[in-house]
Design brief:
EC 3.2.1.14; disulfide bond; Glycosyl_Hydrlase18_Chitinase; alpha/beta
Length: 299
């Protein structure tokens, strides 16, 4: 009888250790919101319970002496202070433990940094208008966002490392400023490769789409797996995420059917200690496909 009890105890201990191992490697889902007026509100996005990070896209104009402009497509008009109401949505997301991040750049923006001083001025603007600073013209109201996402896909590759350093310095003023980035999967990224070397980035959601040399192709995960290995071994970030389109129409190429993702791709990459989860473009396409709901329990 004592032997049976001890065996039962061993089994329970093994199960507990297994549960800990599984939970420690559990990932989260990051979503981009803001570029389609038909994707629901920010509060509704967070209320789905599917996302751990929401990137508000995009601050599309900044740097080089330009007046910064946020573009949230059909959601609101910042020119008449029409986006300040999003403040309550941000707070409702944060109350659920969801990190809300401002994404700067995008595929069709007008942005570049011309000097280290330009980077410092942009950092000051972001701190005062979206983070913990003070300004009379905060585009999203008084909510304090959790950080800044670098979705740099054009302009120049200069001074993004300076911007990261200046933004990171603000973490010393109380609330941590999270830094995230969305590089392309060919390594190193042409735009923010140098910035990522600073080691200041918390989460890096690598775009494994619209990049045939390193993305999934039906029947083969070799290219994706080797690119993933390089990103997780060479980039000093806290967590690396697998960035994917949420539906076939969301990108030119690189969509992974949910069954392929959960049965083939995730099992191949989740053993990395830097695995953070999956990033999806975007909330609008996720609404159409239900992709996040179908993969959430496996991420």
């Amino acid at each position: 009888m004592a032997l049976i009890k001890s065996q039962i105890v061993v089994v329970f201990l093994c199960l507990e250790m297994l549960a800990l191992a599984v939970s420690s490697n559990a990932g989260g889902i990051s979503i981009y919101w803001g570029q389609n007026g038909n994707e629901g509100t920010l509060a509704e996005t967070c209320a789905t319970g599917n996302y751990d990070y929401v990137n508000i896209a995009f601050l599309a104009t900044f740097g080089n002496g330009q007046t910064p402009v946020i573009n949230l497509a059909g959601h609101c008009d910042p020119s008449n202070n029409g986006c300040t109401g999003i403040s309550s949505d941000v707070k409702s997301c944060q109350a659920k433990g969801i990190k809300v991040i401002l994404s700067i750049g995008g595929g069709a923006g007008s942005y570049s940094l011309t000097s280290s001083d330009d980077a410092r001025q942009v950092a000051t603007y972001l701190w005062d208008n979206f983070l913990g600073g003070q300004s009379s013209s905060r585009p999203l109201g008084d909510a304090v966002l959790d950080g800044i996402d670098f979705d740099i896909e054009g302009g120049s590759n200069l001074y993004w490392d300076d911007l990261a350093r200046y933004l990171s310095d603000y973490s010393n003023q109380g609330k941590k400023v999270y830094l995230t980035a969305a590089p392309q999967c060919p390594f190193p990224d042409a735009w923010v490769g140098d910035a990522l070397k600073t080691g200041l980035f918390d989460y890096v959601w690598v775009q494994f789409y619209n990049n045939p040399p390193c993305q999934y192709t039906p029947g083969s995960i070799n290219d994706l797996e080797s690119a993933w290995a390089q990103w997780t071994s060479d980039i000093p970030a806290t967590k690396i995420f697998l960035g994917l389109p949420a539906a076939p129409a969301a990108a030119g190429s690189g969509f992974i059917p949910a069954t392929d993702l959960t049965s083939k791709v995730l099992p191949a990459i989740k053993d990395s200690p830097k695995y953070g989860g999956v990033m999806l473009w975007s909330k609008y396409y996720d609404d159409q496909s239900g992709y996040s709901s179908s993969i959430k329990s496996d991420v």
